[in-house]
Design the sequence.
């Protein structure tokens, strides 16, 4: 295996990433790259390591070895300020993970105030701007339990956006949603992509990947099996494992 | 003639009721109600207990309990966070504390505390006099129990909450304070209220430390009344006063549990 060097202008650059859970090697030397303003979708069967890769990028999982760069910061450096790095990366979870004891507005302002040190007025203004962006401006006083899954996920996106992140990570953002609610969330993500947001999306939504993605990465068994232009990979997969996976999901 | 299962259940229930009724009537007939009444609820003696039983004894019981609860809750939270810490010595210290104070009777803690401290630190006093001694001794015991409750509450908060908070750039301690602990306390409100009920009763153990009349709580008050009058009326009234505190609290707990059951 050849040592790859860093590409310039990269938002996320992953070099020779290995991750073990006990004896189980879930990431077996990943080289992965997201350019500035790119939308990269990661697909693959469950257990392929795609979520683990995404979670390594904001250090929710600690890589066993390898290097990860966010823009020019090597976040795998033990001396790096993890909290500062994370505040630049928006994260959206499969299970939304809104704070149930806070109103929607408070969900969006709490980190702005406590992490970014913004004043209340500034935080509220930014929160309202992002709520309007996801089409839920009128729900700012609601508690998460009173919202549908699709609404909760859009709030979660707005919460991440309120930190003015340089890039967004999506961990199967529509997998926990009822089918009729998926469209709203994907719509918000499309808008984000068209605004030039750098995005890494672990997903099962092949339509989204084809339409919005700049690059598609297929993972299986802890390695990247195939990557390239989404239309090409989905339409004419080269690798046998990709073919068999796509024949099952498409 | 064979009985159907439902009929058999009905007959067996009827037999149980009859046996219970016979037992109650028998005990009621055998008991010496007259002496019982004059020993437990002598009207003149009962009247004499007021207002001191309320203005001194009940007031002090409530003060001691609330003080110990607040101190115990604060210390319990610290212990719970230490138990969950990644720093080994913190964990060991907290575990030792919790095991000790949960494993030793509160009465012995009181005695040890009251007589041990002046020997350990001659010339120094706990601020707040009797109130301070009681609050700290009772609080130490309460803290050990509450620490385990709080720890369970913190662990019951879904893991995704901490991940979401960290993803927004919050430090671990910031996330604990703003996101995790407030949710944990919602979960453990019913068991914490139960702890308050237990502390109310444990405050009776203060009687082992020397008290002046102004510091009397319900049990001490009742025992003194018993000694002075050779009559159980003051103690019986004290018991009723405890119920005045604990029954409303248990109703509150039951309501909260019912509500969280519905919310599930």
Sequence:
């Amino acid at each position: 295996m050849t040592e790859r060097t860093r590409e310039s202008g990269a938002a996320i650059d992953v070099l020779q990433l290995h991750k073990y859970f006990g004896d189980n090697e879930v990431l077996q030397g990943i080289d992965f790259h997201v350019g500035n303003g790119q939308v990269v979708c990661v697909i693959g069967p469950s257990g392929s390591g795609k979520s683990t890769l995404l979670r390594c990028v904001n250090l929710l999982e600690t890589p066993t070895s390898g290097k990860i760069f966010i823009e020019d910061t090597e976040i795998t450096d033990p001396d790096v300020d993890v909290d500062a790095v994370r505040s630049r990366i928006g994260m959206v979870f499969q299970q939304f993970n809104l704070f149930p004891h806070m109103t929607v507005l408070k969900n969006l302002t709490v980190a702005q105030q406590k992490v970014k040190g913004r004043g209340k007025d500034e935080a509220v203004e930014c929160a309202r701007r992002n709520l309007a962006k996801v089409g839920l401006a009128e729900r700012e006083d609601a508690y998460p339990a009173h919202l549908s899954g699709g609404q909760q996920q859009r709030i979660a996106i707005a919460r991440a956006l309120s930190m003015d992140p340089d890039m967004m990570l999506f961990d199967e953002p529509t997998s926990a949603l009822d089918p009729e609610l998926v469209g709203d969330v994907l719509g918000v993500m499309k808008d984000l992509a068209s605004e030039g947001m750098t995005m890494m999306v672990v997903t099962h939504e092949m339509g989204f990947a084809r339409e919005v993605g700049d690059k598609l990465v297929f993972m299986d068994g802890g390695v990247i099996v195939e990557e390239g232009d989404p239309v090409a990979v989905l339409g004419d997969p080269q690798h046998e494992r990709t073919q068999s996976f796509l024949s099952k999901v498409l | 003639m064979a009985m159907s299962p439902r009929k058999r259940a009905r007959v067996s229930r009827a037999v149980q009721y009859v046996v219970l009724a016979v037992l109650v009537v028998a005990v009621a007939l055998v008991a010496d109600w007259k002496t019982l009444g004059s020993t437990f609820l002598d009207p003149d003696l009962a009247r004499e207990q007021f207002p001191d039983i309320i203005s001194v004894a009940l007031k002090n019981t409530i003060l001691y309990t609330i003080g110990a609860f607040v101190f115990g809750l604060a210390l319990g939270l610290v212990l719970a966070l230490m138990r969950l810490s990644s720093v080994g010595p913190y964990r060991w210290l907290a575990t030792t504390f919790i095991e000790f104070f949960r494993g030793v009777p509160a009465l012995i803690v009181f005695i040890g505390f009251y007589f041990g401290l002046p020997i350990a630190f001659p010339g120094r006093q706990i601020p707040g006099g009797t109130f301070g001694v009681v609050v700290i001794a009772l609080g130490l015991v309460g803290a050990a129990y509450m620490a385990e409750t709080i720890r369970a509450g913190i662990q019951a908060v879904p893991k995704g909450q901490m991940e979401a908070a960290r993803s927004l750039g919050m430090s671990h301690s910031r996330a604990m304070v703003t996101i995790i602990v407030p949710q944990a306390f919602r979960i453990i409100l019913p068991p914490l209220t139960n702890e308050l009920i237990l502390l109310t009763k444990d405050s009776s153990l203060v009687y082992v430390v020397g008290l002046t009349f102004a510091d009397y709580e319900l049990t001490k008050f009742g025992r003194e009344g018993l000694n002075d009058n050779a009559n159980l009326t003051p103690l019986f009234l004290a018991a009723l006063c405890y119920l005045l505190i604990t029954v409303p609290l248990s109703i509150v707990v039951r309501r909260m549990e019912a509500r969280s059951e519905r919310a599930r």
Observations:
- Chain B has a mean pLDDT of 88.
